[in-house]
Amino acid sequence: MAYAIKIKVRYRDSLRSNVISLPGIFTQSGLLISHLRYLSNKFRRSESWREKAVHSVVLLLKFIAANESRFVRTVDMLSAFSYALIEGTIDFETYEDPSGLFWSPRRIDDARSILSHVTKYTDWLAEQPLHDSIRANPFRKADSDECKLNWCAYYNRRSQVFLNHLISNGDGISNSFIREVRVPSSPVLLQEEVKRFAEESIDSLLKDGFVLAGVSPDAPSYMRMDYKSQAVTLLQHYGGLRKCECFHLYKCDIAFNKKLDCAVVYVFHPSDGKSPDERYRTRREYLAREFNLRPRTEYPKSERLHLGWKAPLLTDRRGCFRVIFFPAQKAKEFLLAWANYIKYQRVPPPPGEEHPYAFTNCHGHPETVKNYQRLHSLAVKRIGLTPKKSYGTTEHGHRHSYGYRLGIHGFDAVYIQKAMHHKSPKSALVYTQPSDEDVFRIMREIE
Q1: Which DSSP category does 166 fall into?
Q2: Strands annotated E in 173-274
Q3: Is 169 exposed, middle or buried (0-12, 13-18, 19+ CB in 10 A)?
Q4: Cis omega before residue 295 (within 30°)?
Q5: Cβ contacts of 204 within 8 Å, gap of 6 or more
Q6: What is the DSSP code (8-state) at residue 167?
Q7: If we measure between CA atoms, which residue out of 275, 284, 263, 356 comes closest to residue 318?
Q8: Is 265 helix (H, G, I), strand (E, B) or coil?
């Protein structure tokens, strides 16, 4: 019986000496070695990217198994696969599915992502020795309209690239061709309104929400307050950090500036950032040599130490960026929460399990995003709100509040880009454009 399942694999190829953990695909014919080589070749990509790449190929293998001997040409099979992703495989008049897959229709963006992962893998495979050099999803000559759209997309991408004047004009030759199998474009969304944490509720969250469970309200504040969650939330709400960036911080990344009388915080790239120990060049080497650890981005999602990284714009040659608090006096408020956390509540790593990370759990191990999400959710409920993304009451709503606050105080997109460490000013437009509520309010004032 044909099948394809995802498994954990410890893999070492001929190009590197160390063993790496990868998600693998196991079929009735054994392990799909070529896809492991492909993932190893793209190892600097994120864990989420690898998971999506595996998921996409698993879906393709299941589709092939369910439609065995139905297609003569590979391109026809891939085209039918794309239709199955978009339209599903169920006949909703008879509720039957001859393939036995019973796939529901997927969103256009999801189908496009899956087909893209399959295409990139098969392109890579076609270029390998001892493999058929014919691409599964070949290029064809674009018609006039398709060619114009390709050129528009090309120049739009090029305009966003730093030092774009160094790009050769020959890079656009491929715009005369398109893929044989494509997913239709999704509906255009100008800019989705961001859902931000309400400013009128942040003080209540910090003072009344982040309290330690089971502690009497009459206990001293150092025994009752959850200083760790306060500090992390201040970094997001007034420093604009993503939640994953907070937990990549080392203790030494947070310092006291005597001249400014406030905290100075730097966020380093988790693997390529400068090591705090001069004996080592990078944080990857520092973690390996001093603690027998890897950067948290390189652990599988199933492991507690895994942590994402959104590739922010780095502004320091040491491989980092500085947190810019706004309003600036909030850096002092963060410093107070951080100092209280270090003094009263931070649990040091247990002997033999040392690590450099700033925030720890109750056992002294590096804190996880999942646990912080749990604590944040409980705090939101304590102040009478419902933790929900559409309400802006989840953790990411704090970063949106930071960007929106910059926008309403007159910062333009370039300044917001710098403060929020986006790679393009366009990413900041969502914080400067008026919301629906802003438009309704102005209309009511005019009336």
Answers
A1: G
A2: 177-179, 254-257, 262-268
A3: exposed
A4: no
A5: 383
A6: S
A7: 275
A8: strand
Measured in whole angstroms, the distance separating CA 244 from the mean position of its chain's CA atoms is 9
- pTM comes to 0.77
SS3 290: helix
Amino acid at 266: Y
Beta bridge partners of 177: 141
Residue labelled with tokens 């909703």: 92
CA atoms within 13 A on the CB side of 399: 20
Mean pLDDT by 10 residues, the chain (447 residues): 84 80 90 90 87 94 87 86 92 88 91 91 80 60 50 48 45 56 60 79 96 88 94 98 97 92 94 96 96 93 91 94 96 96 96 97 96 97 94 93 92 91 83 75 86
Residue with tokens 């910090």: 206
Q: Of 106, 185, 111, which is closest to residue 146 (Cα–Cα)?
A: 185
| DSSP H/E element including 55 | helix 47-66
Backbone angles phi, psi at 10, to 5 degrees: -100, 120
429 Cβ partners below 8 Å, 6+ apart?
191, 413
Give residue 264's identity as a one-letter amino acid code.
Answer: V
Rounded alpha-carbon distances, angstroms, from residue 281 to 200, 277, 289: 45, 8, 11
Give the span between the Cα atoms of 230 and 214, in whole angstroms.
18
Going from the C-alpha of 177 to that of each of 123, 157, 167, 174, 182, the distances in angstroms are 15, 17, 20, 6, 12
Whole-angstrom Cα distance, residue 431 to residue 401?
9
Which long-range contacts does 348-354 make (Cβ < 8 Å, 24+ apart)? 354/290, 354/291
Q: Which of 79, 80, 78, 85 is nearest to 108 (CA)?
A: 85
3-state SS, residue 246: helix
d(CA 323, CA 346): 22
